Amino acid sequence: MTIELNDANFDEVVLKSQLPVMVDFWAEWCGPCRLVGPIVSEMAKEYEGKAVMGKVDVDNNPGISTKYGIRSIPTILFFKDGELVNKQVGAVPKSNLVRKLEELF
Questions:
Q1: What contacts 97, CB < 8 A, 6 or more positions away?
Q2: How deeply is 105 buried, as exposed, middle or buried, from its count of CB atoms within 10 A (0-12, 13-18, 19+)?
Q3: Is residue 21 classed as helix, strand or coil in its secondary structure?
Q4: Residue 86: beta bridge partners?
Q5: 53 assigned to active site
Q6: 20: nearest Cα among 59, 45, 48
Q7: What's the pLDDT tens digit per position in 36-86?
Q8: Which of 23, 89, 101, 104 is 20 to 30 A from 46, alpha carbon to alpha carbon?
Q9: CATH top class, domain 3-102
Q10: Radius of gyration (Cα) for the chain, nearest Å?
Q11: For the chain, what is the mean pLDDT?
């Protein structure tokens, strides 16, 4: 299951997580985001208990988006031990996201 992240819960869910975290920055109006969204949901099921999958609606959460310099969506950030360790900008095949997430284990 993906977790809806916002300015209020981001630090608690992402930065304090004991598990690796993958965060999808997206917006309703973004075509490429609609391609990536189902991949993130699929990965959330596959990695349940091993990683945290979150989604940030950039229109409703400008604080987080600004903090991480999100200028183009979809952007996916990868966190480990509260630190940003990798990122992917744009729609890419699932294999690219799996590889970047697997590097965190």
A1: 22, 39, 40, 43, 76, 88
A2: exposed
A3: strand
A4: 78
A5: no
A6: 48
A7: 999 999 999 999 999 999 999 999 999 999 999 999 999 999 999 999 999
A8: 89
A9: alpha beta
A10: 12
A11: 96
* Neighbouring residues of 75: CB distance < 8 A, sequence distance ≥ 6: 25, 87, 88, 89, 90
pTM above 0.85, yes or no: yes
Catalytic residue among 14, 21, 23, 33: 33
Which position among 21, 30, 52, 56 bears the catalytic label? Answer: 30
User: Which DSSP state fits 45?
Assistant: H
CB 33 within 8 A of CB 26: yes
Domain residue ranges in the chain: 3-102
Name the residue among 61, 79, 81 with its Cα closest to residue 70.
61
33: annotated active-site residue: yes
In sequence order, the β-bridge partners of residue 28 are none
Contact 23, 77 (CB under 8 A): yes
What is the identity of the amino acid at 73?
A: I
Burial grade of 24 (CB within 10 A; 0-12, 13-18, 19 or more): buried
